[in-house]
Specification:
The structure is a homodimer of 333-residue chains. Chain A has 333 residues and is α/β, with parallel strands linked by helices. In chain A, 46% of the residues lie in helices and 17% in strands. The first copy, chain A, has two domains: 1-121 and 288-333, Isopropylmalate Dehydrogenase; 129-252, 3-Layer(aba) Sandwich (Isopropylmalate Dehydrogenase). An eleven-stranded mixed sheet of chain A has the order 3-2-1-4-11-10-5-6-9-7-8, with helices on both faces. Chain A is globular and about 55 Å long. The two termini of chain A are 37 Å apart. Chains A, B: It holds the Pfam family FA_synthesis.
């Protein structure tokens, strides 16, 4: 594999730098082609590193963006934050991708200000690969924008399709718009107009509308919605999954018989858990920037952070930004 | 219990009149204070009834609204449909509530045209009681409107609070707006403005924003959103639940050991299944009309249809429309 360098914003997650450092050490151990740059307080990071590693270096950043800081405030006052420094490493070519578990809005704002967007793309979107029973599905936008015009949705659809093609190797990913199910109220104006625009575009495999429940039924490879809807749908789904896992846990601890059964069934249940474990599916991509920027969940544990680092390395290896850039022209209206 | 009469639109569901008739026979059997009016084709309904019952009568309707018919078309051409006739029984006081598994949009349109709305309420909303791990939560709107102004959201919040108080006996139900989690993009303009309006209202126990995952965490008793977001969130949640149940099913059928375990664990898992069984939670209320109108899922089975009939009878007994009407005045801006 060709060598890949990823900048890791080590200071912005909820759980502190220890998570980022541990994940980074594991990442360079498992992947010999990977080099990482840990960005943050040198003293703190050096103390956390178990030993020096030739493919793990530290770049000092004296400041950090807080989780609840306004993006505009961060942009004005936090140019020396670990987040901004990590993104600048990507801009300057010292790293090819960046991972941050920090404030999404600030990451978005710094991303747009430090790394160029694709020409013609108005807004970046957050995209995530959602696991389902049979396949996987790229869903965007998951919260970069609280509303979206038909034109925005159309652009998200193009970027999402190109990304799905590059990531999953599908020649013609099935593209759909997320909509409500009832026939008579088929979506708001933006969604209907975006649907009309997409139906005109021969280069996209647009299959029409899908409903919330279709996200897990391998009906589409790319599903597009505005960030408000996407964020709420994703979190509702996570809420249901968490509730069911807790119910299952309760079921197998309620009685002695239940506990024995639970013990016997543990390997079976663990396999199930692994399939939907959020840590394994951590990592959302900022799509629209001419560079790989992966957002990790704010309270990611070590395993989840490792998943996000792996994802950014994969996107770099697949040259996602270059491939999207090359094919964007012919698809833009 | 005081006697209650419910009109059942027997012809509009996906699965035909047999479901409605079977559910109706069970409903009058289990509840001696309940009378039902089955509305539809007399010949078909009589053939389906296993025997005459003193509290089960048939009212003829010569037509039916199709599942994919436009509401405006239904309103113009289907005044003799089982749906319209059932609602007219409520309007005329021959029934106190109505249940239909038909086309939501048409039910909404007929409901608005045949039954008065509360004074001052601009649009009805669809509300459903969502089960969670610890409590239950009234969520609205679930698809009556694809968009909603701040004023609409405010009115939904009032109606939802009054309904939760009446249904659950909570003196001050915790009221929240559904929003995205990230601080910096706290919702679109409508949500922010509605939040401001609700915060001013001393008679409501407004607790602020909640996220999608909070729907199942007993954080609020009433959660308000527009119908587009609500519909997609609900269906995404249902999709996740269906996927997990299928994964569980697979886990316990994959190997002989798994099958034996599954057989041993069946009672435990069945209890879990019952907790989240959609059939037990079938029935959404059209809120805003001065009458009880319950929408059953289109492809409800007999048990689900029975749940919807029970719900409408409960809402009639609790005099939900009268109670909301009485308290609405002081809460409206």
């Amino acid at each position: 594999m060709s060598p890949v360098t990823i900048a890791v914003d080590a200071m912005s997650g909820d759980r502190g730098a220890a998570i980022a450092v541990a994940a980074a050490e594991e990442a360079v151990r498992e992947n010999e082609a990977l080099s990482l740059v840990l960005v943050g307080s040198r003293g703190e990071l050096e103390a956390l590193l178990s030993e020096p590693h030739p493919r793990l270096r530290i770049v000092e950043a004296t400041d950090a963006v807080h989780m609840h800081e306004r993006p505009s405030h961060a942009l004005r006052h936090k140019q020396n934050s670990s987040m901004a420094v990590a993104l600048r490493l990507v801009r300057d070519g010292e790293a090819q991708g960046c991972v941050s578990a920090g404030n999404t809005g600030a990451l978005m704002a710094f991303g747009r200000s430090l790394i160029k967007m694709y020409p013609g793309i108005e807004r970046p979107a957050i995209v995530k690969l959602i696991p389902s029973l049979r396949g996987r599905c790229h869903v965007l936008d998951l919260g970069a924008n609280v509303d979206a015009s038909a034109e925005n949705l159309y652009q998200f659809a193009i970027m999402g399709s190109l990304m799905a093609a590059a990531v999953s190797g599908l020649p013609e990913p099935r593209l759909a718009l997320l909509n409500v199910g009832e026939e008579e109220i088929k979506g708001n104006e933006q969604v209907r107009l975006a649907s009309h625009m997409l139906a005109q575009c021969d280069s996209l495999n647009y299959i029409g509308y899908v409903e919330g429940s279709d996200l897990f039924r391998d009906v589409a490879d790319v599903v597009v919605c505005d960030g408000f809807v996407g964020n709420i749908a994703l979190k509702t789904g996570e809420g249901v999954a968490a509730m069911l896992m807790e119910l299952l846990e309760q079921a197998f601890t309620r009685s002695l018989y239940g506990r024995i059964l639970g013990w016997l069934a543990r390997p079976t249940l663990m396999r199930l858990l692994r399939t939907i474990d959020p840590a394994r599916h951590n990592g959302a991509s900022l799509l629209g920037l001419q560079g790989v920027v992966v957002k990790s969940h704010g309270n990611a544990n070590e395993r989840a952070m490792l998943a996000a680092i792996r994802q950014s390395a994969r996107e770099v290896r697949l040259e996602i930004p270059r491939r999207i850039n090359e094919q964007l022209d012919e698809l833009m209206l």
